[in-house]
Amino acid sequence: MRNGQPKISWAVALLAMGIAFGQAFAPRGDLKFEVGTVKPSLPGTQGGGVRPAPGGRRFVGSGVTLRVYLFVAYQVKPEQIEGGPPWADTELYDLSAEAEKPSSIEGLHVMLQNFLVERFKLQFHFEKKEMQAYMLTVDKGGPKNLKARLSVPGADFALDRAAEQPFHEKFNAHCVSMNFFTWALSSLLDHPIINQTNLDGCFDFEFTFTSELPPGIKEGQIFNGVPVDTYGPTVFQALQRQLGLKMEAKKAPVETMVIDHAERPAED
After folding, report:
1. How deeply is 242 buried, as exposed, middle or buried, from its count of CB atoms within 10 A (0-12, 13-18, 19+)?
2. Where are the domains positioned within the chain?
3. Which helix (H) or strand (E) holds 125?
4. Tens digits of residue pLDDT in 148-199
5. CB 96 within 8 A of CB 171
């Protein structure tokens, strides 16, 4: 950490987070997809991703391991899911599942959780583990630049992330909840972010910040054809100035999932 700024983790970037201090895992419940398939990816498949499809009814995935599906379904960092067979980190699967009717993004994540539990015969339990985390709260001046929207089933949802130049991050959010935003942001940081804002619903907003340079990269160095610079706000400064939010590092008992059993899915 440099001057209070979190170290960026470049090894893990998930596509498109309770604990004693707030929401850590995505909501859970009994919602289920109406139909769905999961099967091994074709040989030679490299990379991939998991995402909700437009319309609020489907989740699709391609070339992804079981553990990555769990990261997405439960919206957590890798260190919050432990155990499981070795193949959960190596074997790739394609997934397509559809609900009977449109749902919220939170509902789709619950459906994905239950689909994975059923198809992979998952058994697990939860434990509290002491670890470093970031607590996200509303700053003393109150939230700003967050355009509240009516979060209805099937509402358009998007959280686009782009880098206009190396290490300058930009998020464009359309009907995005604070829980989902904190999970997406934490994929760029070295610890989980715990949402304590108590801001319900979904929001439209833009968010830009400059990340800390990874080891071996220096100011002025040519990277991807352009010189590296670090102008612009840190993630801490940007949250406060642009969104009226405050983030602080703190050690806390964070809820983790421990996988006790998993099986390869039967062929559909």
Report:
1. middle
2. 35-127+255-261, 129-253
3. strand 123-138
4. 987 666 667 888 888 778 878 999 999 898 998 999 999 889 899 999 999 9
5. no
